[in-house]
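Late entry, evening session. Most of the bench is empty. Finally got around to the prediction I had been postponing all week. Sequence below, unchanged from the version circulated by S.P.
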Amino acid sequence: MILISTLLAAMGAAAAKRFRDRRPLLVLMFCVYGAAVLYLTLLSRTANPGKQHGIVFFRAAQWIFNIHYGVWETVKILLGPDWRLSRRHVLALMELRDVILNILLFVPMGYMLPAVFQKICRWWRAALIALGVSALIEALQGVLNLGWVEPDDLMHNTVGAAAGFAVWTRMLKREALRRKTGAEEIQADI
């Protein structure tokens, strides 16, 4: 789903260059992306009413940076001559994967927010909206008992949105430079 939403964002950028009125397409893509996030974070999970999860701070970081079973120790074992991974090593790698996926999940949001809503022209506005959406998702997961409520997911999702906004800004600058050099070439031809 993350790959699909990233591909949708790329297709929207390509279509925006081609069509004059790109707003309906961008709004549609933003809605599809929102539905994908809703599905991945809430609808695809089953409630477990008998199990209490609670709030866990930096659960992923605890696994990733554990001295004996963390990612770095796991990499050393994998590169060694006789490697055998324990369950804890695999869990550390899975936690790292989850952090990366949480960041990537919100990159399209940071990219599409300024494209769809023109008042979002500052990175901190996109990050603040992503933080609010992420907080809502975590709160719903806690209320509906759909998994761990992890405050560090708020940070990962916000970083992802800020990265998406940076990509958007870079593309705008590149487009402005392309237009400027194209206008200079036209002036030179005249």
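Two things to note before I forget:
DSSP finds seven helices and no strands in the chain.
The chain has one domain: 2-53+105-189.
Will write this up properly tomorrow.
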